[in-house]
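Input for the complex:
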Amino acid sequence: MKLFDPTAPPVPREVRLAPRPAHLRGLRIGLVENTKFNAAPLLTKLGDLLRDRHGMTVALMTTKRSPSHEIDEAQIAALRKQADFVVSGIGD
Amino acid sequence: MTDLERRNPERRGEGEQDDLTDPAALIEAYYERGWTDGLPVVPPTEKSVRATLDAAGLRGDEVLGEIAGRNTVVTADKVAINVVLSGARPEYMPVVIAAVESLCHPDFSYHGPASSTGGSAMVTVVHGPIAARLGINAGNNAFGQGTRANATIGRAVRLVMMNVMQTRPGLLDRATLGNPGKYAFCFAENAAESPWPPMHVERGFSPEQSAVTVYASNSLYQVYNQLAATPEPLLLCFADALANLGVPNVKGFNQSLLVFAGEHTEVLARSGWSKDDVRRFLVERARRTVADFKRATRLPGDVRSGDERTWRHVFEDPADILVVCAGGRAGSWSACLPGWGKKWTRAVTTPVKEKMA
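Predicted:
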């Protein structure tokens, strides 16, 4: 008898990590907020800490459509333009 | 490598298994590989997989959908194998495909409802003439056991989720409790006894076009009222069920599915209430005060003056209340199936592409 494999593994896609910054001082931060209850307060606090400790600037906080959705292209474009460093958080 | 694979290295994948001549052993082999939903499966054969593909007029390598965030690509051959495993008949395949296409639609936003701790059932509602043709139950015990089409179409959808979309308990299915509808949840709209246009017609399809709506439901509440002779008291019971303090989403962007059955449908029909009348009433009356939510810590902070008179409505928009008829004629039961919030996921209706003769 033959077994039929009903599974399909994920199809790999190439993901390239952005170059890591050599230092944090003076960099512009982009924050990606996912709409979970504590996401914005958590990221705001994190932005404050990075500003105080490393002299960074919070350039923008952008909000995803929902936690389920990927960030959209317009948001990625804004982050590319305005930020050197991005933090994405969940804050459930 | 899993423990199973270490124990049975020769049984890792598919292929000829000379030792599997006993049907029970074959079923066990599918268990051993983690390819079932916990119930025994119907082992596929070349013939049954081929017949299932043929019933939809598909080649095995045809791509039916993709879910970008999970790197998932769904091909017809894998769906066909899972349809056979579920015990479905080949002719159910076009319905399962429409359900899979709904799951892959960007508006459904699969990752959240499939993987979240809430553990939703993917409710599959079948509309149009194919429902009767396949014998999908829309009447007595429509949500329950006893009808092959309902049981196996719903099961096939979940098997595709598990086996093709990596939605496995403990991995990318993180349900805290789950719910029994995660095994299978498929029923047909009872258009014959509905006083209203079918849901798929409301959503832009012709009555003759068969279609499937997939909707992520947290739970199923049966709503009882035996004395209501007019819509208002009956619908107050729905409003209360929809606005309970444990409802997942208190921010007002919900989507919910209401299923009217039996005597409740008659009450609404007799009074001449349209679906929109039902929706308008529930948008207004499905609500709690901010004070209620704060006392239950569903909203943060202390109760302040004004909170007792400030209302939070469960729905922003009447269109977020999905209404269908199903179930038997007798009885004072209907149901509401709270969803996930329309920003996170939305019910998606997909036409059934039946094989051209």
